[in-house]
From TrEMBL:
<keyword id="KW-1133">Transmembrane helix</keyword>
<keyword id="KW-0812">Transmembrane</keyword>
<feature type="transmembrane region" description="Helical">
    <location>
        <begin position="154"/>
        <end position="176"/>
    </location>
</feature>
<protein>
    <recommendedName>
        <fullName>DUF3995 domain-containing protein</fullName>
    </recommendedName>
</protein>
<keyword id="KW-0472">Membrane</keyword>
<feature type="transmembrane region" description="Helical">
    <location>
        <begin position="114"/>
        <end position="142"/>
    </location>
</feature>
<feature type="region of interest" description="Disordered">
    <location>
        <begin position="1"/>
        <end position="22"/>
    </location>
</feature>
<feature type="transmembrane region" description="Helical">
    <location>
        <begin position="72"/>
        <end position="93"/>
    </location>
</feature>
<feature type="compositionally biased region" description="Polar residues">
    <location>
        <begin position="7"/>
        <end position="16"/>
    </location>
</feature>
<feature type="transmembrane region" description="Helical">
    <location>
        <begin position="30"/>
        <end position="52"/>
    </location>
</feature>
Length: 184
């Protein structure tokens, strides 16, 4: 296995090549942990809720919330959770460096660095802010009779989000360092 991957210039599909070192093992593990957290960690409970099942929720409060747009919100949230999983894996795979053959128009062209770095950094920051908000909100809702969802689900959610945040941040930083011009 080569120590670097040759990728064509973003300006052309000629044989101009930039050598990009492979991701370090810790970045690969972090990226897959982030992708798993976004899918295996996040989706199961949220899919159950999106199907209208009030697991770990107050059924009397859940049903009206669900019918008043909560179901659409949950479906959207589930679909959006797939994007960060793909992003995390793209940060460590060759298709995060060069657009694959099946992508029309840009196939074979170098993926612009900021196309992955900006969303990776922004999402890490957003998820961190959201997790901090949830950590503050959880104890406030602990005995609140108006809470739709059982606040104890936040304990799992916060832990799962911390894995997601750390994994995505590590993979994004690694990608940024590896793809920096003259980094090889």
């Amino acid at each position: 296995m080569s120590l670097a991957t040759a990728i064509p210039s973003s300006r052309s599909t000629t044989n101009e090549a930039h050598l990009v070192p492979p991701p370090p093992r810790h970045a690969v593990r972090a990226a897959y942990a982030a992708a798993a957290s976004a899918t295996i960690g996040f989706l199961p409970l949220h899919v159950i809720w999106a199907l209208g099942i009030p697991l770990f929720a107050d059924p009397d409060l859940f049903r009206p919330w669900y019918q008043d747009g909560g179901g659409v919100y949950l479906l959207t949230l589930n679909l959006l959770a797939l994007l960060p999983a793909v992003l995390a894996v793209a940060l460590i795979r060759p298709w995060g460096l060069v657009f694959p053959r099946w992508v029309p128009i840009v196939r074979g062209h170098r993926v612009p660095r900021m196309l992955l770095i900006a969303p990776g950094a922004a999402l890490s920051g957003f998820l961190l802010a959201y997790t901090a908000f949830a950590a503050v909100l959880m104890p406030l809702q602990w005995d609140d009779p108006a809470a739709i969802f059982d606040p104890r689900t936040g304990i799992y959610g916060i832990a799962q989000f911390l894995v997601w945040i750390a994994g995505l941040a590590i993979a994004t930083r690694s990608y940024a360092c590896r793809t920096r011009p003259n980094a090889s």
